[in-house]
Amino acid sequence: MSSSSFSQIRSQALSLEKQTESLLSKYSQYQQSSSQSLESTEDESHTKQQINDILGKRTTIINKLNRISESSINESSLSTSKLQQISRHREILQDHWRAFNRITSQLTDERNRNNLLFSVQSDISYHKQQHQRRPGQAGSTEINDDPNAYILEESQRADNVNSIADRLLQGAMNTRDELINQRQFLQNAQVRIMSSLQGVPGINVLISKINTRRKRDTLILASVIAICIVLLFFV
Question: Which residues cross the membrane (predicted)?
Answer without folding.
Answer: 218-234
